[in-house]
UniProtKB/TrEMBL annotation:
Protein name, per record: Type I restriction enzyme R subunit
Xref: SUPFAM superfamilies: P-loop containing nucleoside triphosphate hydrolases
Domain Helicase ATP-binding: residue ranges: 202-358
Classification via InterPro entries: Helicase/UvrB_N, Helicase_ATP-bd, Helicase_Restrict-Modif_Enz, P-loop_NTPase
Gene Ontology, cellular component aspect: cytosol
Biological source species: Nitrosomonas oligotropha
């Protein structure tokens, strides 16, 4: 077993070198690592330490890391793999003080802690800070007292209102604002937003460094976050802030908000790969997915690069291995969420099962509260949808519960029964349920009924009389295309000569410029504007049909209709979809004719319609007070109401004979054959020369880029490129994703990680998902846990043995035997398989 694991000294040396520390002078600069005095700094002296520090006194050794002037900067206390790194804490403190060092790293090669002696307790890290990063962090002298005593008044942030961000969280009405604010279009913190910031100050005074704001959609979480950012930067308690979003389209939205809120004081940028602008900015905005992919957060940043990390929609962006990004950085942490834990009040955890979608939601919410130091279930600050409605800042939906004959059967316990012919040619019955809609069960008639019902009953725009701006949520991209076509056909009948197939627009990830469509829709210029009234600015396109792009955090306050033309099983998704309509809005702000304004009078949004075609509200609430129940229109005479027949399986069977002519074996080395390497180079050249593909990659439009490669580069007669042939040509011992290939081709990553390197990275993420108490309890079993983790993730036969409970087969399993299994703490024997199946891309390890 020892041969499988590099020992502590080897691992620590590698981690130091990866982060820019040097044992010897080289082209990069002078050596900046000194060992304790009794070890001579030569290659032989380093080797003499032993691979696990067995020869060092007390089983550990000190590394002294130096700055550019060769002054002591960090004490690294190295321990043997089977020792808890924290055991050497006090000795490291004493040595650090004797060397006038502020920073300590405690490591056993697997588990590492970074400790700022002036800032409290050690924090777990997965990568050592670089020399440049720690030097910048050394200049950082936070002062919590200034943060606690800073006066946060209503005008702490006062700014000119942004076009397209009308009433996201600024004021209740024109009358509410002072005259000078109305003239200058200023907006201020609302009382509850000010209370949120003050609650954070109180938490800091209690010694806390993690905070959670639970604020309903439409109550201005971004504005509140801007106030928190200003508080930290202004009081010197942060030098740089990382703002994490969970959707690509929210990057631009958040950045624009911060530019407007804080442009007079601080610089905000969206982080893009291979660009160093982030180093010059105080606020960096990016998606958690972009940092998580290929572990870029570790490769491109040091743990000390950000002093405050804010996770927008925290319940989404810290789940599972994504939490590693959040935990990677030391410093203060703030989570923002619109999903209250109370939403699962009907869920009985004692009767839970893994098939209940609420079980996953419950875990995510509990993890969210635990991550932000709110184990009691009470966030740092809470402001609910009901609070917002009661105080006049938000509006509740008018729910339209509409069910057809077919959806009623799909929703029933028996499902919709269809006569089919089985493999033996016998007649049989197959039942379909709501989860099968537009996946296994297709009905053109049902989709048309949905769209007709929506068109007849949607709220109209109060100024122009056209269908109010709406979002329709579909099952899939293909379903979205169908609905878009039907809606555009119906628009011709409802509004003759007004639209040219631009009433409804599909906005999904495979649509070019889909992200820009969401922005244009919010800014009222999607495919044009002022279609009915020339002095009224509103989007010509009235309906965006999407799957999931316009849910979390999307700001469009003049939305009047939301339609769930799909079943929804996630409470978070349901809350987010409903939240797209809760913002208040004054439609007169879009009207530029003063005479019409005077004639029309007050035109504020007081409600929105939520069309529910799959009893989603009933699913999430035991009893629901429906405001409106509609009977769906019946098919016209002559139309077929029955379902189309199920499509054939579409298989082909070759019936001829085949023989083996010759056979031979030759083992190819890691670099592969020259022709393979040339093959990969040819693909690189072809991809790099394709301007359209290059543009998609530069804009991080990965779904569109993958689709483009499949259509234009793969399986062509001149080369027959495919994922499998390129993987073999690249000489990698695992499956590669198409995105990885493109990132390598366009220089976004230096190379492909091996299977073992990926598993090491994934195991570090698992460690970051643990509480300090769990780590303390199992620190002596880290090596055993890692062996189990790697074996289970990479060995399909072992997964079968564990999952089926056939443990006796471990006695003859060569890669992971019964002795290995017994070394794993009992609590982890099921937990690791569960984590692997939930969060690891197992296809990559084949």
């Amino acid at each position: 077993m020892a041969a499988r694991e590099a020992k502590a000294r080897i691992k620590i040396n590698k981690l130091l070198e990866e982060s820019g520390w040097r044992f010897f002078d080289d082209a990069s600069g002078k050596a900046n690592i000194v060992l304790e005095p009794n070890v001579k700094l030569t290659k032989a002296g380093i080797d003499a330490m032993g691979e696990n520090f067995e020869s060092a006194h007390n089983g550990f050794i000190d590394f002294l890391l130096l700055d550019a002037q060769s002054h002591p900067l960090i004490v690294l206390e190295a321990k043997a793999e089977d020792k808890n790194p924290l055991i050497g804490k006090e000795q490291a403190r004493g040595y650090a003080k004797s060397q006038n060092c502020r920073f300590v790293i405690l490591s056993n090669g697997n588990l590492h802690y970074f400790w700022d002696l002036e800032q409290g307790n050690p924090h777990i890290i997965t990568r050592f800070p670089s020399p440049d990063s720690i030097k910048g962090y050394q200049r950082f002298q936070p002062n919590p007292h200034r943060l606690i005593t800073e006066i946060v008044s209503k005008d702490y942030i006062a700014l000119t209102q942004m076009p397209g961000y009308a009433n996201e969280a600024g004021w209740k009405s024109e009358a509410e604002r002072p005259v000078f604010a109305a003239k200058n279009r200023l907006r201020f913190l609302r009382d509850y937003q000010k209370r949120a910031v003050q609650a954070l100050q109180s938490a800091v005074a209690e010694g806390k460094s993690r905070f959670l704001f639970e604020m309903a959609t439409g109550t201005g979480k971004t504005l509140t976050a801007a106030a928190v950012i200003k508080l930290f930067l202004r009081t010197g308690n942060a030098q740089r802030v990382l703002f994490l979003v969970d959707r690509l389209e929210l990057e631009d939205q958040a950045n624009k908000a911060f530019v407007a809120y804080l442009k007079n004081d601080y610089t905000s940028v969206i982080y893009k790969e291979r660009r160093d602008e982030w180093r010059k900015a105080e606020i960096v905005v990016t998606t958690v997915q972009s940092l998580l992919f290929n572990d870029k957060y570790q490769c491109l940043f040091s743990p000390t690069d950000f002093d405050l990390v804010i996770s927008d929609e925290a319940h989404r962006s810290i789940g599972g291995n994504a939490r590693a990004v959040f935990e990677y950085f030391v410093g203060y942490k703030l989570g923002l969420t619109a999903t209250p834990k109370d939403y699962l009040k009907q869920f009985d955890s004692k009767k839970s099962n893994t098939r209940d979608p609420r079980e996953l939601e419950r875990r995510l919410l509990l993890d969210t509260y635990r991550t932000f130091g709110c184990e009691s279930g009470e966030p740092t600050f809470r402001y609910s949808l009901l609070d917002g409605v009661r105080e006049g800042f938000l509006v509740n939906p008018l729910v339209v519960d509409a069910r057809s004959d077919i959806t009623t059967q799909l929703l029933s316990d028996k499902g919709y029964a269809v006569a089919v012919v089985d493999d033996d040619g016998k007649e049989a019955t197959e039942s379909f349920y709501q989860k099968d809609f537009e996946k296994k069960f297709f009905s053109e008639a049902t989709n048309r009924l949905f769209c007709e019902t929506f068109m007849r009953n949607a709220l109209r725009d109060p100024i122009s009389g056209e269908t109010g701006k709406s979002i329709v949520f579909a099952v899939s991209q293909n379903h979205a295309a169908k609905l878009t076509q039907i809606l555009n056909e119906l628009a011709d009948a409802f509004f003759p000569s007004k639209y040219q197939s631009d009433f409804a627009v599909q906005v999904t990830s495979l649509i070019p410029e889909a992200q820009q469509f969401t922005i244009n829709f919010a800014n009222n210029n999607l495919l044009g504007s002022a279609n009915f009234e020339e002095n009224y600015r509103t989007s010509k396109a009235r309906v965006c049909v999407t799957v999931g792009m316009m849910t979390t955090g999307y700001d469009c306050p003049d939305i009047l209709n939301l339609a769930m033309m799909r079943p929804i099983f996630s409470p978070q998704d349901f809350v987010q979809i409903k939240g797209r309509g809760t913002r208040k809005h004054d439609f007169l702000e879009q009207l530029f004719d003063p005479v019409m304004k005077q004639q029309l009078g007050k035109q504020e949004k007081t409600r929105f319609k939520l069309f529910d075609f799959f009893a989603n509200c009933e699913y999430f609430e035991e009893k629901f007070n429906y405001d409106e129940v509609l009977k769906l229109p019946q098919p016209q005479s002559g139309e077929k109401s029955e379902l189309p027949p199920l499509p054939p399986s579409g298989t082909f069977q070759y019936g001829g004979a085949d023989t083996l002519a010759a056979i031979g074996e030759h083992q190819i080395g890691e670099r592969g054959m020259k022709i393979d390497r040339m093959f990969f180079n040819k693909f690189e050249e072809q991809a790099q020369s394709d301007i359209a593909l290059k543009t998609l990659v530069e804009n991080a439009q990965w779904d569109q880029a993958a689709d483009y490669v499949h259509r234009h580069l793969f399986d062509k007669p001149q080369a027959f490129f495919s994922l499998e042939t390129l993987r073999r040509a690249a000489g990698v011992d695992r499956h590669l994703s198409l995105r990885e290939l493109l990132e390598k081709v366009f220089g976004l990553i230096p190379g492909f990680k091996s299977k073992d390197e990926l598993l090491e990275d994934e195991f570090r993420k698992l460690l970051l998902d643990l509480s300090p108490e769990e780590l303390e309890q199992h620190v002596d079993a880290i090596v055993a846990l890692k062996n189990y983790f790697k074996a289970y993730a990479s060995d399909g036969h072992l997964r079968y043995i564990i999952d089926q409970g056939k443990l006796t087969e471990l006695n003859v399993n060569p890669n992971f035997n019964m002795t290995d299994f017994r070394a794993v703490p009992a609590a982890w024997r099921n937990r690791i398989p569960e984590y692997v199946k939930n969060y690891l891309p197992l296809d990559q390890f084949k």
